[in-house]
Amino acid sequence: MITDARALQPDFVPQELHHREGEIDALTTTLRPVADGFAGEDAFIFGPSGTGKTTIAHYVVDLLQQENLDTTTAYVNAMSNSTRADALYALARDAEVAYDIRKEGSHASRFLDRIGDIDGQFIAIVDEVHVLEDYSTLQALWEEPNVTLLLVCLDEEALFAEFDQQLQSRFGGARKVHLDRYTVAEMTAILQGRVNAGLRPGVIREEALEHIADLAAGDARAGIALLRSAVEQAVADGREEITQALVADVEVDARADMRAHRVRELDTDKRLLYEIVREAGELDAGTLHARYEDRAQDPVARSTRRKYLGRLSEYELVYSDGVGRGKHYRHG
Ligand SMILES: Nc1ncnc2c1ncn2[C@@H]1O[C@H](COP(=O)(O)OP(=O)(O)OP(=O)(O)O)[C@@H](O)[C@H]1O
Ligand SMILES: [Mg+2]
After folding, report:
1. Model-wide pTM > 0.90
2. Taking a C-beta distance cutoff of 8 angstroms, is the pair 261, 79 a contact?
């Protein structure tokens, strides 16, 4: 059934990105000065989950790097690296300029110096920007003359509401690209691309593919997860064909897989907060904070924890009800 399992992986970067030509053009135009050796304009990609933000950011930056090999690029996901030191270290390491520095015990400014010392232009992709513990990380980066930022985030309004005046004026005029959820027809085309790249011809019926596209509700991450789960189930059952009924059977598992994937991305503090909620099933905010303080080696501030919990809710890893002292968190 499977000819290339990579095509079903969430991190697979397809050769062609369907339906995003305009957005890709807008971003490459904004960032192109970098490929000519000058600082580019900073840019943002906004859009709901699974609209291709991360994939497009990598795609655009790879394109520019092919145009000028003196351009250095690096990626950090704030879901996995929220603190200033973690985020800067992740960027320096991805840019391959931090091999000889130990992360533990080194000050964030050492990683920043390494980034500033890079010859030529440097494009930093900061994914899930709104999860950064502290937006001064962005300021530190833009103060380096060779750095251009490509920032990725779910929602423009929510992010700018958290920015102080300096950040708002710095980024107010930046190029902003908004991605919409895919239509059923677009999603079907994206899924067909994966099927063609990874499966033997004829194993999935058109109606099954459309059913996946429908269930995914515009989220390509969900669509691909559903396709992968259906394929795995078909292989396990020794079936030759993926039907609509099989897709319906695997939906719950596919959603659980997506959740597990997100949980694996979490760094120490977010994971601890998530685990405390998961273990309890449900608990009030006071108990959650007390348990966190008990278990965290190096506890982050309460306000930071509230921010992280807000992000976990946005991704539906935890759910919350109530406000202030009456606030409760649930796992499912
Ligand atoms: N236009 C497209 N053509 C082909 N594949 C796509 C396209 N858009 C997204 N995908 C695929 O869908 C999956 C989800 O995309 P991606 O991770 O970039 O979404 P995202 O917007 O960053 O989501 P999240 O906010 O959840 O991180 C990836 O596997 C990606 O390769
Ligand atoms: Mg993403």
Report:
1. yes
2. no
